[in-house]
Amino acid sequence: MSLITPDFGLLFWMTLIFAVVFFILAKWGFPIITGMVEKRSDRIDESLRKAEEAEKALAEMDGRREQILSDAKAEQARILREASATSDSIVSKAQDQAREEASKILEQARTEIAAEKESALRDIRRVVANLSVEVAEKVLRADLAEDEKQGAYLDRLIDEVQRSQDKS
């Protein structure tokens, strides 16, 4: 027996065993293996399909996120514009109220000043009138100390009263 050239019996038995093993594998082994390969292939295909759907969903979510961000920025800008307009309005109203208050206070001060001025003028007139009466009294006492001067003065006053009645 030689190692390089096998005998006919050995070849026969090896072929027969190969055929039996191949038949057993073909009958029960290969269908299980191919079924497992097909299941795995189906799972891979399903996973790829789900991955594509997830990728599409992510792309859609990214688009929605961008839309939401742009809407939020627009809303923020609108709110800031409204807040600015509101603050301008409040400042304007406060300034108008301050002007009105200042105008009222100024008018009140003018009224009080006019009243004080009028009161001061009345006081001055009263003081001047009292001083005039006192001076006139002192002058008349000095001038009318004598009886002759008193008579002349009374005659002059009577003439003045008659003239004023004649004119009326």
Task: Please describe what this structure looks like.
By secondary structure, the protein is mainly α. The protein has a domain of 110 residues. 93% of the residues lie in helices and 0% in strands.
Summarize the structure.
With 168 residues, the protein is mainly alpha-helical.
Supply database-style keywords.
168 residues; mainly alpha; 2 helices; 93% helix; 0% strand
Mean pLDDT: 89
Helical residues, percent: over 70%
- Calculate the terminal CA-CA distance, rounded to whole Å: 185 Å
Largest sheet: none
Low-confidence stretches: none
Number of helices: 2
Q: Structural class, from helix and strand content?
A: mainly alpha
Cα-based radius of gyration, to the nearest Å = 65 Å
How much of the sequence lies in strands comes to: under 5%
**Rough shape?**
rod-shaped
Element order, helices and strands? HH
Tell me the total number of β-strands: 0
